[in-house]
Specification:
Elements lengths: L12 E4 L3 H13 L3 E7 L6 H5 L2 E6 L10 H10 L4 E3 L9 H9 L3 E2 L4 H8 L1 H10 L7 E2 L5 H11 L3 E5 L9 E3 L2 H19 L4 E5 L5 E9 L5 E13 L2 E7 L6 H16 L5 E10 L4 E8 L6 H8 L3 H9 L16 E8 L1 E2 L5 E2 L2 E2 L2 E3 L6 E5 L6 E2 L6 E9 L2 H14 L1 E3 L5 H9 L1 H4 L7 H8 L18 H19 L22
Parallel strand pairs: 1-2, 1-4, 2-3, 4-5
Antiparallel strand pairs: 6-9, 7-8, 7-9, 10-11, 10-13, 11-12, 12-15, 13-14, 15-22, 16-17, 18-21, 19-23, 20-22
């Protein structure tokens, strides 16, 4: 399905305005298409993998994103100086910034993504909800365009608690607050406005009915500039922490063929409403009690979890992003696509689940990725890499594909056991516990499941608290401490004979050791 014939309009060189694993992913697609690549990097990423992987690399500035990856002028200058034809934004940073897309086009460069008009229309949650209502796509009950606290109070009373306060211009859980009662509303509005302003430069909010035990299901859409648009089926993304995804899978264990058809048609209708082209994602909330789905938002970019769609739909989404941007027609219709097997993605983060999923920083003393049939790892790190506080703590995306869901779960559990990371705290053990849980096996995990399950059963995730409030040390930590103690005692007993090249060699020991 991805057989490629060179196009007369194909790019010669593409600048990737991003970093880490997604930059490498895009570069790999470019190399397969015979396109040269330009990496950009900050002072903190001088030795990063994406810098080494590119054909050439350009330093943008200091580690702070606003001085490097978010600096539009520097990115455009880098593209022009390197004689690039196009810019691929990846995801995050400037990928959903309509002004950036316009600036790229104004510099006679091609923006590999949707039009600025589509980004703008779907980037505003309030405006996009209004547009979806007009297009007949079901939306979560709520109100947009509210200003005063009194307006929010009246709207919340009409919707009924609990409600969700959301930033109109936001995403990724920023500027989002769940409100259980009227006494919490004022503080939630104030903090959400503050966070929205800091994160997006826009303090506008909207209010919706909060569906407590809903599932987060998104549909991949893809279209060209010639009016062709299809969906590539769904991804179940309900395993979340802080409103951000941790584990995704496809197909969703929840959807029937009839429901999948209905949601797919709604996703295509939503994308057509903004004349969409290139890769995008329509996100829905599904309430199993109401047996209804509602439009949540559209991500006008490539998604972090796109690999599981690639594996089950049999298409290289990044290559087709590039080809569509170059003006090619998308030669497939909806009937050409079918789901094959089952795929799961686990996001391996440098974070501490036992400490509120706070990021962990440090040098990767060991970083051994699993290998084997049906296993894919997208990563921007290697042993010796530094994990800093400047950027998202995502270390790698671990993806598996198997003939069915049960086999995929088993393959993922094996792969997680074989994924060795030392030097920072990770969420690997946490994801193992999720995959082993009966609720996950039965497909009963809602967007609040992690939060609720942690509260009721922290022991399950290896996070038992001592009465004094300190965490019990992990078993591996106890082993490491014991070994360190042995080495220390050995060193003391030998008075650190510095002339001995290896004072701890087993050949120096008089005991029962046998080789």
């Amino acid at each position: 399905m991805n057989y490629w014939k060179p196009s007369k309009t194909m790019f010669n060189k593409i600048l990737i305005a991003n970093r880490g694993e997604i930059a490498i992913r895009i570069m790999r697609a470019c190399k397969e298409l015979g396109i040269k690549t330009v990496a950009v990097y900050s002072s903190a990423d001088e030795h990063a993998q994406h810098v080494r992987f590119a054909d050439e690399a350009i330093l943008l500035g200091d580690a702070a994103p606003k001085e490097s990856y978010l600096n539009v002028d520097k990115l455009i200058r880098a593209a022009l100086d390197s004689k690039a034809d196009a810019i691929h934004p990846g995801y995050g940073f400037l990928s959903e910034n309509a002004s950036f897309a316009l600036t790229v086009e104004s510099a006679n460069l091609t923006f590999i993504g949707p039009s600025a008009d589509s980004i703008r229309a779907m980037g505003d949650k309030a405006e996009s909800k209004i547009l979806m209502k007009q297009s007949g796509v079901p939306t979560v009950p709520g109100f947009e365009g509210l200003e005063s606290d009194a307006d929010f109070k009246k709207a919340a009373k009409e919707i009924g608690y609990p409600v969700l306060i959301k930033a109109s211009a936001g995403g990724g859980g920023k500027g989002m607050r769940v409100v259980s009662g009227e006494n919490e509303l004022g503080e939630a509005i104030e903090s959400a406005r503050r966070e929205a302003l800091n994160s997006f430069g826009d303090e506008r909010l909207l209010i919706e009915k909060y569906l407590a035990d809903a599932h987060h299901i998104e549909f991949q859409v893809f279209g060209d500039k010639h009016g062709n648009l299809v969906h590539l089926f769904e991804r179940e993304c309900s395993v979340q922490r802080r409103h951000q995804k941790i584990i995704e899978e496809t197909p969703s264990p929840l959807l029937t063929p009839e429901l999948r058809e209905q949601m797919g048609q709604a996703a295509v209708a939503a994308a057509k409403a903004v004349n969409y082209h290139n890769a995008g994602t329509i996100e829905f909330i599904f309430d199993p009690i109401l047996s209804s789905f509602f439009f949540l938002e559209m991500n006008t970019r490539l998604q972090v979890e796109h690999p599981i769609t690639e594996l089950t739909a049999g298409i290289d989404l990044v290559q087709w992003q590039i080809r569509i941007a170059a003006g090619e027609k998308f030669p497939f219709t909806q009937s050409d696509f079918h789901q094959h097997g089952h795929a799961i993605e686990c996001r391996v983060y440098a974070e501490d689940p036992a400490n509120g999923f706070l990021p962990s920083t440090g040098k990767l003393l060991q970083f051994l990725e699993p290998r084997g049939p049906g296993i894919r790892v997208d990563s921007g790190f290697k042993m010796g890499s530094d994990v800093t506080h400047f950027y998202d703590p995502l270390l790698a995306k671990l993806i598996v594909h198997a003939e069915n869901r049960e086999a995929a779960i088993q393959r993922m559990q094996t792969a997680l056991r074989e994924f060795i990371v030392h030097g920072v705290v990770t969420n690997i053990d946490f994801m193992q516990a999720v995959l082993k849980h009966e609720d996950f096996a039965q497909g009963k995990v809602s967007t609040r499941w992690v939060e609720k399950t942690l509260e009721s059963n922290s022991l399950l995730f290896g996070m038992q608290e001592h009465p004094q409030g300190t965490r019990a040390p992990a078993f591996q930590s106890l082993i490491a401490a014991a070994l360190a103690d042995v080495v220390f005692e050995n060193r003391k007993s030998k008075n650190e004979n510095r002339n001995e090249p290896d004072p701890f060699s087993p050949w120096k020991q008089a005991g029962s050791y046998r080789n």
